[in-house]
Specification:
Jelly Rolls, alpha/beta, single chain, globular, 22% helix, Rossmann fold, 220 residues, 5 helices, four-stranded antiparallel β-sheet, ten-stranded mixed β-sheet
């Protein structure tokens, strides 16, 4: 089962996500909305299974629709240690899915929220759950040790160290290969590689990589 978390950032139409990342949405899924992320369900053609938040981002119409639908709702205080999206991710973890996809994690007026949402990939990595942030412009995941990156030939693949140097990086299926090399934290060497095989692979001995894929149509 896949868990879909609806955050309150920007979300493109379902058709745009499907075109950018075919197969990103599975039939067997649970949908958890984080506060105002509930407004994205209709755009994506999804049915919400759970709602979590303090309610400060919900408009009156969406709130009334949620209440009328009898969707399980967890209302939390506005003054709290976690963001609404983090609480939705924690709820997703409790559901014991095989993977988590977060949409609406980026964009919107709050850069700090976007950065915090990227950090949630670290939380999911720590509990061993494959996770991805998906927009029509990017597919983002946090990996440790190794990863297989299925996708289109020509798409960009960026590898950015997180929290320190990443040691012993070896890649296959990318135009600019790495062979047991170190990507230094704070340096841009891993930016804008290109997938040359439908299945690219990365493996490394130590550290964490933020892997950002961009459709070739958006490459500049």
């Amino acid at each position: 089962m896949q868990a879909i978390v609806l955050a309150d950032g920007d979300v493109e139409p379902r058709s745009a996500l499907d075109a950018a990342w075919p197969g990103w949405l599975l039939d067997d899924r649970i949908v958890i909305a984080a506060d105002g992320g509930a407004r994205h369900a209709a755009t994506l053609g999804l049915t919400i299974d759970r709602w979590v938040g303090d309610g400060d981002s919900l408009d009156d119409v969406t709130r009334a629709e949620l209440v009328a639908s009898d969707i399980p709702m967890t209302v939390v205080p506005a003054a709290k240690d976690e963001s609404d999206t983090e609480l939705a991710v924690l709820s997703a973890i409790e559901a014991r899915p095989s993977s988590v996809v977060i949409v609406g994690a980026l964009g919107g007026p709050r850069v700090d929220h976007a950065l915090a949402n990227l950090g949630l990939l670290t939380l999911l990595l720590a509990v061993g759950l494959p996770s991805t942030i998906v927009t029509a412009r990017a597919r983002i995941r946090m990996v440790a040790g190794s990863a297989v990156l299925d996708g289109r030939v020509g798409d960009l693949v960026t590898l950015l160290p997180v929290g320190g140097d990443v040691v012993g990086v070896t890649t296959d299926g990318l135009a600019y290969p790495l062979a047991d090399e170190t990507l230094l934290d704070g340096r841009a060497r891993g930016l804008s590689n290109i997938r040359v095989s439908p299945e690219a692979q990365i493996r490394f001995r130590a550290g964490r990589l933020l892997v950002i894929e961009t459709p070739a149509t958006l490459a500049r």
